[in-house]
Amino acid sequence: MAKDGTNRGGRRVRAGDKPKPLADKINLGKAAKVLEAPDLHPESILEADELEVEADLFGEDMPEPSEYLSARQKDGRPLGADALFKETWKWLRERGCEKFVNPRLIEAYAQAFTRYIQCEEAISIYGLLGKHPTTGGAIASPFVQMSQSFQKQANLIWYEIFDIVKQNCTTAFTGNPQDDIMESLLSGRKGRYNL
Question: Which residue of 44, 115, 188, 194 has the smallest Cβ count within 10 Å?
């Protein structure tokens, strides 16, 4: 620690070899720790006939996305992030990693990516230039900056999700939901703007 109270020196962030995916470690025969999900149905000492109240039990494969992911926007259309949430959840479930990723993280990714798409649509409609409110001169469209910000946010969250999958997936996997999300979301809105 320096005299001014700050920590200096030491290992640089992200220095050294990057960790290998779990599937690669297993294929190479190296020691690998596989995280197990907590047992959701532990053995119980109660018998069914000992319960006094009948319960309606049902299983739920996927948590319901929060309402704000499908909230109506100013133009009257729903946001549509709930569809992206469901698609991402299914992708995680196919790889057996849905239990390792917090649903709030998936919601944050879905919202950021959908906002990015909204900004790209606005750029397509209004163009790359705008009018300055006081001078009337040409300025860069604010949608460009917002688009870049939402894209960066969505990518950072996606890298976090993908890293969890990479570190915990025991089988080799192909396919990435980011490959065709933009295409499917934009194709659903194509007729509205006659692009």
Answer: 194
